[in-house]
Write a structure and sequence with these properties.
CATH architecture of the largest domain: 4-Layer Sandwich
Shape: globular
CATH topology of the largest domain: Purple Acid Phosphatase, chain A, domain 2
Number of domains: 2
Number of helices: 7
Helix content: 25-40%
Structural class: alpha/beta
Strand order of the largest sheet: 1-12-2-3-4-5
Distance between the termini: 81 Å
Number of strands: 12
């Protein structure tokens, strides 16, 4: 009997050891490799109302920076260099600059975000974590680094006779959004309009207004940890329906960026951080 038990233990020992080694390798990859392995995702989008003057217009989107102890100035500078290398006409930052209870790291933003360069400027909106931390401090960091806070407002980009409207709503999760004010102020013409909204599921409302050609969002981190063939382990409220990539809602496009930072477990698996390069095309 003792010999039989010993034989069974010997039989399963390689399996147990193999599982342990595999688990350690996956954990090492998810902690040290993938969070630093940024994917530059390039898209070509045709917008029906885009003026021909904006054909081949390049927008670079980043989201969910979540500056904290892990997202250091060194990492931020490396990411921002990658953004600048895309030679953007416009940079869109779709919220969550910091993480809840991480206000002490805002100086890292102030020291680095000014290095972002775009021909027509840098624009952003706040996310829920910015409000849970200190929205005033984040807004100040944006102002000091020339990032326009599109809180329930819009700006006009003009090239020749053509116009492109870039608009934003303040954070939906905490109830600061006023899409009605944005719609009231937007000109009632046929020029393309793009909306920045931190939470992607807000697109169900945006699309019904028939005013925006494109919504850019973040928030979900696309799950951050994604086991192959299974749905994401966790998705936040207002980021559960449209949590990753491109969607068509009526006549509006929505793109949800995976983000470049992390919350909760500082791990990424099968969900690389993302810089999105969007080239706009006018309808021929």
């Amino acid at each position: 009997m003792k010999k039989l038990k010993k034989t069974r233990k010997s039989k399963y020992r390689p399996v147990t050891l193999g599982l342990l080694i595999t688990s350690l390798c996956v954990l090492f990859y998810a902690y040290f490799i993938e969070p630093n392995w940024i994917e530059i995702n390039s898209l070509q989008l045709t917008l029906p109302h885009l003026a021909t003057e904006f054909d081949e217009y390049k927008i670079v989107q980043i989201s969910d920076i979540h500056v904290n102890k892990w997202m250091t100035q060194t990492r931020l500078r490396r990411i921002f260099r990658l953004v600048n290398q895309q030679k953007p006409d416009l940079i869109a930052i779709t919220g969550d600059f910091i993480t809840r209870r991480q206000e002490r790291f805002i100086p890292n933003l102030e020291a680095t975000m000014g290095e972002l360069q775009a021909k027509d400027g840098k624009f952003g909106v706040l996310g829920n974590h910015d409000y849970w931390a200190d929205a005033n401090l984040v807004s100040r960091a944006m102002a000091q680094t020339n990032v326009v806070n599109l809180a329930n407002s819009f700006q006009t980009i003009q090239r020749g006779d053509g116009k492109l409207y870039i608009a934003g709503v303040d954070d939906i999760y905490v109830g600061k959004d006023r899409l009605d004010l944005v719609l009231q102020s937007l000109p009632k013409d046929d020029n393309a309009a793009i909306l920045l909204a931190h939470e992607p599921d807000f697109a169900d409302i945006t699309a019904t207004k028939n005013r925006f050609d494109l919504q850019l969002s973040g928030h979900s981190h696309s799950g951050q940890i994604r086991i192959p063939f299974l749905p994401p382990l966790y998705l936040p409220q207002l980021g559960q329906k449209y949590y990753a990539g491109m969607y068509q809602l009526q006549s509006m496009l929505l793109y949800t960026n995976r983000g470049i930072g992390m919350t909760g477990l500082h791990l990424r698996f099968n969900c690389r951080p993302e810089i999105t390069v969007i080239t706009l095309n006018a309808k021929k």
